[in-house]
Amino acid sequence: MTYALVINSGSSSIKFQIVDPNSAASDDPFVSGLVEQIGEPNGRITIKHAGEKHATQLPIANHKVGLETSMAMLNELGCGPTQVEITAVGHRVVHGGMVFSVPELINDQVVEMIRDLIPLAPLHNPANIDGIEVAREILPNIPHVAVFDTGFFRDLPPAAALYAINAEVAAKNQIRRYGFHGTSHEFIAGQVPAMLDRPASTVNQIVLHLGNGASASAIKNGHPIDTSMGMTPLAGLVMGTRSGDIDPGIIFHLARNGGMSIDEIDNLLNRQSGVKGIAGVNDFRDLHRMISEENENAWLAYNVYIHQLRRLIGAYMIALGRVDAITFTAGVGENDAATRADALAGLAHYGIKIDKERNELRSGEPRQISTDDSTVRVFVVPTNEELAIAQKATALAAKLG
Ligand code: AMP
């Protein structure tokens, strides 16, 4: 058996998995791990392997210490890089700009190109580079592959990609819609044609990735033609803590009249808004519990969320003309039957009919939740970005020999 190591490096944390690239999306990974509180005195490493959890607490000075200690823990558990065959290391990279569309074998030049994109993702790309540099040092003899969150959407049609702002300013500042969650949208969109028993090049579909972050995409004949996230992952749908689309004038108002700095507004819209901003919680399980207790703010937050979601679904139905499938994925999309039902309620007129029983059935498998006579097929398909990255990294490593 051969595996891929998948690394998702954040500013103060590293998530990693060792994955069999041939496993199913709903399978547990061979190993999963989390390094937390990097740079803090109370760092923590948690590893899950073979149904058991192993945790250790220690100061983790930097990403290198975090990853080295994790690999040593894995080797002690008998599942580390010296014991199992790892054929590729896949790195999640948030922003590939207009430079990267497909996964890229990492060398010094590619690292520099990802560094050049830091102004587009100042919080994410530096942390991604830290993870890449450390992992290349620790595992120098394994091919490392960068997989970009923006890649799937790089070739959006200009009408969807451009913002109607001054063209010179936009070009100078690389302002355009890049889209994010691309690995997940591509992974899901790739599975739907088989469920319809049709070639991908003939399928028009809408993918709704509803997790703590949330985004939608419209895919026509196999190619994305629009997506809800924009230049940054703040745009589009209402999310757990992010506002999604708002009137940009609100930002000027908060700066001029609300006494807030740019950083405070950034924090407000990214971390204190969305469902949490209205209801005080961002987890949909808490939200539904509060709604059942007749909490007015929770009910409002849910309705704002559903309203924005339906707006986008409507927009994409028009953009696509004919819709063959609508697919829900990610934490909310896979688990929250109420959100799915409310997102598509009352649309029988448009050929969309949800089967109540199918929708409420709990399952980790890809499944249809529309009725047999629904013209538009509605599915729930579990996403697994780590598995998708593992598959892409393994395929590229194999191709390059
Ligand atoms: P993700 O970002 O894809 O991991 O999704 C995480 C979010 O999924 C959580 O914040 C919850 O809002 C939601 N979620 C997870 N499990 C459930 C569940 N059983 N029912 C409703 N929502 C859920």
UniProtKB/TrEMBL annotation:
Belongs to the acetokinase family. It catalyses: acetate + ATP = acetyl phosphate + ADP. The keyword Nucleotidyltransferase does not apply. ATP binds at residues 15, 209-213, 283-285, 331-335. The lineage of its organism: Bacteria, Bacillati, Actinomycetota, Actinomycetes, Mycobacteriales. Transmembrane segments: none annotated. It is found in: Cytoplasm. It comes from the Bacteria. GO terms for molecular function: acetate kinase activity. The keyword Kinase applies. Homodimer. Keywords: ATP-binding, Cytoplasm, Kinase, Magnesium, Metal-binding, Nucleotide-binding, Transferase. HAMAP family: Acetate_kinase. PROSITE patterns: ACETATE_KINASE_1, ACETATE_KINASE_2. This is Acetate kinase. Its cofactor is Mg(2+); Mn(2+). Pathway: Metabolic intermediate biosynthesis; acetyl-CoA biosynthesis; acetyl-CoA from acetate: step 1/2. Its EC number is 2.7.2.1. Mg(2+). Can also accept Mn(2+). Substrate binds at residue 92. InterPro entries: Ac/propionate_kinase, Aliphatic_acid_kin_short-chain, Aliphatic_acid_kinase_CS, ATPase_NBD.
